[in-house]
Structure formats: structure tokens, C-alpha cells
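Sorry to interrupt, but I need a hand with the structure work. Leave the record below and I will have a look:
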Amino acid sequence: MDVILVLNAGSSSIKFAVFEAAPSAAAGNGELLRGQIDGIGDQTRFRARTPDGSVVGDEMPDLGSDAADDSPHERGIRSLLDFIERFDASLVVRAVGHRVVHGGPDFAEPMPLDDTALEALDRFVPLAPLHQPHNLAGVRAAKRAFPAASQVACFDTAFHRRQPWVADTFALPRQLYAEGVRRYGFHGLSYDFVSGYLRQAHPKLAAGRVIIAHLGNGASLCAVDDGRSMGSTMGFTAVDGMPMGTRTGQLDPGVILYLLDEKGLSAREIETLIYKESGLLGLSGISGDWRLLEEAGDGPAREAMAYFTYRALREIGGLAAGMGGIDALIFTAGIGENAVGLRADIGAGLAWLGVEIDQAANATGREVISTAESKIAVLVVRTDEEGVIAQHTRKQLVSG
């Protein structure tokens, strides 16, 4: 059977999923398998599950040692190839779909990956230093592991490329915009999936004004009008907007100048501070994990969660104003899908917009958590970035 392998390569982990290349209608999206390889380059752990939740892989493979032409990502992907062969020897990887965080100003659609495209995407590493280099390392490793397979890039920035100019620019000299200094927005694969799901399951809402709250270790919100991105809280890089697990979110540029001039921090030290030492972790002094902050429940943990909630309310209000109102609010991603208390607090904070949360529905994990009387529909939708990558990769196979 021909399959599509989806890869989301991080610094020391690779999320993966396997889908039928041409699923039948009865097979839904054709998912066969998904999992994660953690601790690449250290103590590696491989885990995989089938769609029904059955564990089919939980092991600690020996990936061997580094060689001059052998990266940790290559060793991790070879272990994945070995597992796929053991799981079902009849599976043939026909295409590999990759999550690539940054597509810059020009790459607004999924695209085949050749050496020229990879060189172009290398230019955006400074704009997404936590993600882009590892995404591209995964691509290069997959090209060597699956030389006969098509390689397709799906960009987190692509969903936002049609946003209005006023949502795309900064108030800087226009030449900088022409050179690519603009608000790119991220989490586009998640927004793409949620928007597509709404078109199928709730077409009336999908045709209206929707704010999608992708709240996880990386967090952002996006205003969507009839499926088109109208603005996102993330900007030039994936550190802007909402506070996140370890990232600052919105920050006065003057703070950066102060840290340079008065504290003597280098650019690389500031990068570490704003990407890895701030956000919920920096505010709480405990963790960037929302679940651990809920368990701690002390003053700094409560204050960190209160700040996150406050910023979410501010951003929702601003995005709603930009669209002239909203018809639906969608929670998604790890925190958005699971933090019952946060959803209740945000709902209460939006009572002025006519939001009314059904507390029983919220607590029991229903999809629609607003009351029948609420002026704005509030839903919880489980995102599936891997599924939307597989969908785009299939289209590339057909068109190619």
C-alpha cells in the first residue's frame, strides 16, 4: 500500500504520522499510525499508536553514534523507517509531507522540495530559530532515507499570506516591508485544519467571523472571515503576541534596547531570554507547562495563568474590533482543548460580547460549550496539523 509519511521535526524530537496515499471514503482521512520520537541524540524513546489508541510501539532504540555524514535526525528517521517495515512490510512511502514553520513572503502554498527550495528556505532560519533549522534538517534526512519519495513542504505562514495589508505590516519605512519585514503569522496549519473542519461541520459559522485560539506551549490567535485570515497575534517571528510556555509574547521594543545598552546582554543572550526563559516559565518561576501551574496553585503560578488569560482577552477584543464583531470563538491546541478553567475564565471575561458558557458542557468535553442563548458560539475543536499536511501532500501528488 502506498502511504504518505508526515514529519514535524524539532530539535530533539520528531512527530510523525502515516496516512494512506489514496484512502477510500470509508477510511476517513486514511490515518494508519502516529507517534513521536523523543530524546534524539540522548536517550531516545519511540512511541506509536493506531487511530483507536492502541499502542503499537514503545521502545528505546539504539540510534548509534554520530558520523560525519550522519545527523541525529537521520538516525531518528531511519529508526522510524525500520519501525514502519516491522509494523507492515507492505507499506511503501510514496511521499513525505513536512511541517516547515516559515515560508517567507513568497511561499504561500504547499510545494515540492528540491535543493533550490531548501536553499531558499534556509534564508528564513533567523526568523524562526527554534523551528526552521530543525524542520529543514528533517527534510534533508528524509530525502536521504526515502530517495524515491516526493518531499512536500507545508508552511505555517501560508494561511496568513492573504491577510489585509494593514494586518501584514509594521509602521516602519516601506523599504523594510519590501525586503520582507512584515507580520507573517504562524500556526497556519492548525488554522487551516480548524477552518476546514468548520466548513464541513458548521458551514454557517465558517462563512462568518471567527476567532481561533490556538493555545498551547506555542500560543496565538487568528481572526478568520469566511475562511480568510484577517490578522494574527504572531508577527515577524513566532515570539510575538500571546505569552507562551517559554516565550515572552508581545514586548515593548524598548525593553530589547534596554537589555542591550544597560544590562549588556548580547543578541544571542536576549534570544535565549525571550524564547526559552520567559512566558509562563519566567512569570511563575516553576514551569511553562499549564498543567503543572494548575497543580501548583501558588501565587506566582496563579499570576502567570492570570496574565495569560488577560492577554488572551485583550487579543480577542482587538481581533474582534478589527473584524467588526465575531460570530464564533474556537479553542484548540493543548491548553485550549484541555484547560476547562481557562475556557470558563475567558468566557466570563467576554460576557460583554454576549458570550455565555455552558459550564456542564465545558466540563464534560463537548464540542459546543456555549449556551443556546449565547450571542457568540464557542466551540472546542481538536486540531490535526498532521492530517492537514497529509491532505495537502496528496494534492501535490495528484497535481505532480
